[in-house]
Specification:
The chain is mostly helical and 110 residues long. Helix content is 56%, strand content 0%. It has 3 helices and no strands.
Length: 110
């Protein structure tokens, strides 16, 4: 009988907690795949931007020196690329390389 006379304590019932956990699980199942997809898209766009920047620096080097750079390090030492470090592909983490025939960045067609 003492149990019935006790004042009700504040807090959530088990049913309320299960409902909240279920809702959070559903939201996570919908949102997480979209977030990872947008991350991959951002990395692809960043790779495309890096390639464009480096190809522009290669052309600048050619117009200034009359020869094509043999490696991307030539761009850094000659100050044709404004960043201190030549970027790597954000998708594969591999370094960009110059195609000796086309004199542009090769590969990385994501």
């Amino acid at each position: 009988m003492g149990y019935l006379n006790r004042p009700r304590q504040p807090g959530f019932s088990l049913l309320e907690l299960l409902a909240v956990v279920t809702i959070i699980g559903i939201i996570a199942a919908v949102v997480l795949p979209r977030m990872t997809g947008s991350t991959d898209t951002a990395k692809k766009n960043m790779c495309h931007q890096f390639k464009g920047d480096l190809n522009g620096a290669i052309e600048k080097y050619h117009f200034a020196n009359g020869t094509w750079p043999t490696s991307l390090n030539d761009l850094r030492h000659e100050d044709y690329y404004s960043d201190e470090q030549i970027p790597v592909c954000p998708m594969t983490k591999q370094a960009y390389t110059i195609d000796p025939v086309t004199h542009s960045i090769q590969g990385h067609n994501h």
